[in-house]
Amino acid sequence: MPAVAYGLYLLTYAIGVTVFVGLIIAYMNRDRAGTRMRTHYTFLIRTFWLSIAWWLIGGALFFFGIPLSLILVGVPLLLIGGFILAVVGIWFALRCIMGVVYLARDEPYPRPYTWLA
Question: Record's superkingdom (predicted)?
């Protein structure tokens, strides 16, 4: 079942809301899963919440940078916010791909609580 959640997470780039279905699947199955699969569900849940936090930070900087860019004060906010959004998008995809690789090897995710990939 983690494979379905990983697929839904990656499908978010095309559809947008599938990550929420993947998150629900991860929360519903984490307690019932064995030790190996529990690491994947924990990893998926943390990936969601960490990415949401960084998306909010980057989005807020970008959003507030738009009106302030008229007086050139917001240009750095636009650049920093856009950079954060781009990095988080790449980071999210890499975490999901790495999770799929470990799942395909039938291995637990080695460090599900890490911030990095």
Answer: Bacteria
With a CB cutoff of 8 Å and minimum separation 6, the contacts of 35 are 108
Give Rg (Cα) of the chain.
16
- pLDDT tens digits for 63-112? 998 888 888 888 899 999 999 999 999 999 999 999 999 999 999 999 88
Exposed/middle/buried for 115, CB within 10 Å: 0-12, 13-18, 19+? exposed
**C-beta of residue 58 within 8 angstroms of C-beta of residue 81:** yes
CA 33 to chain centre: 21
Residue type for position 62:
F
84's enclosing H/E stretch is helix 75-104
What is the reported pTM? Answer: 0.89
Query: How long, in residues, is the chain?
Result: 117
